[in-house]
Amino acid sequence: MAAGIAHEIRNPLTSLKGFLQLIQSGESAKQIYYSIMSEEFSRIEIILNELLLLAKPQVKHLEKHDLNQILTQVKSILEPQCIIENVQIITDLTNGPVFVKCDENELKQVFINLIKNGIDAMPNGGEITIRSKMEDGDAIVEVIDQGTGISEDKLAKLGQPFYTTKEKGTGLGLMVTYGIIENLGGHVQVRSELNSGTTFQITLPIPS
């Protein structure tokens, strides 16, 4: 994993070094240089932030939180981005509260990651459905997009460090997501079909 981290950070650093050398050589600095350099700095920042999430110690004292309330808050957080991207979030939540033991902020991060992935998979806009239900003593959340879908051979690699289906992704966001859910005693399932969208299903135990 250390080699993967070094590779992911070295790529934007190499690009930045190249642009600095161009500027130092007397090449007139064009606005596009600064734009690309800014994007590369942002990429490094994203990688480091996701690594910090991975390095965060496991939470020892989990508390009961209403899953439906967390999902409603996440929808509100992402609504401005959805408006810009022409994406509508539709919620289909089970009646009444659904309590799970979790770190509230970490679980919010899980659903933010999944919904943002759905937004990225729909460059022309569309709908993302968030559905919650209870089944066999578990709480289940489905995040369903209308995006480009993921091929079967790529599905098995999701959650691996630095594996991503996105052009500018790092794969760390999904790795963090899988780790958080597994630490809560849950699991993640993915169903997808090319050109028909993807469904991420999160299953969490309901405390007695």
TrEMBL record:
<protein>
    <recommendedName>
        <fullName>histidine kinase</fullName>
        <ecNumber>2.7.13.3</ecNumber>
    </recommendedName>
</protein>
<feature type="domain" description="Histidine kinase">
    <location>
        <begin position="4"/>
        <end position="208"/>
    </location>
</feature>
<dbReference type="Pfam" id="PF02518">
    <property type="entry name" value="HATPase_c"/>
</dbReference>
<dbReference type="InterPro" id="IPR005467">
    <property type="entry name" value="His_kinase_dom"/>
</dbReference>
<dbReference type="GO" id="GO:0000155">
    <property type="term" value="F:phosphorelay sensor kinase activity"/>
</dbReference>
<dbReference type="InterPro" id="IPR003594">
    <property type="entry name" value="HATPase_dom"/>
</dbReference>
<dbReference type="InterPro" id="IPR003661">
    <property type="entry name" value="HisK_dim/P_dom"/>
</dbReference>
<keyword id="KW-0547">Nucleotide-binding</keyword>
<keyword id="KW-0808">Transferase</keyword>
<dbReference type="Pfam" id="PF00512">
    <property type="entry name" value="HisKA"/>
</dbReference>
<keyword id="KW-0418">Kinase</keyword>
<keyword id="KW-0597">Phosphoprotein</keyword>
<dbReference type="InterPro" id="IPR036890">
    <property type="entry name" value="HATPase_C_sf"/>
</dbReference>
<keyword id="KW-0902">Two-component regulatory system</keyword>
<dbReference type="InterPro" id="IPR004358">
    <property type="entry name" value="Sig_transdc_His_kin-like_C"/>
</dbReference>
<dbReference type="GO" id="GO:0005524">
    <property type="term" value="F:ATP binding"/>
</dbReference>
<keyword id="KW-0067">ATP-binding</keyword>
<dbReference type="InterPro" id="IPR036097">
    <property type="entry name" value="HisK_dim/P_sf"/>
</dbReference>
